[in-house]
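To: structure desk
From: M.T.
Subject: fold request, one chain
Message: Could you run this one when you get a chance? Sequence is below, nothing fancy, just the single chain.
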Amino acid sequence: MPERPDAVEQALRALRFRDRSTAELDARLARRGVGEPERAQALETLERVGYVDDERYARTRAEQLADRGSGDALIRFDLEGRGIAAELVEAALAALEPERERAERVLVRRGRSLGTARYLAARGFGADVLESVVAQEE
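Reply: Done. Structure tokens follow.
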């Protein structure tokens, strides 16, 4: 029977194609039957060498989502769902271009309409941004 790869090797395979949060890697290793002490040691090793960094991950993921036209609420929901600590989520959001400016780019592309307001709402933009869209539409 072939020997099962160790936790660090399994985590490195998971990181081969994209960055992942500590919580995502921990859950992945747990699903593969890696015990808690071995998971903790592997994650600590990968954090120490810089392969796993939740701050970097949060910042990069937030930028990607913002570039795709997502609002702060959607970005916050995504990051929290990936196990990112609240303070790192808030720091990543604070580093982004303001939500209103991102919404303005969508408005230029889609036009100012109730449909655009619904689109922005579905993409997680805040009520203040939506109100400004609707107010200028009337």
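Reply (cont.): The radius of gyration is 19 Å. Let me know if you need anything else for the meeting.
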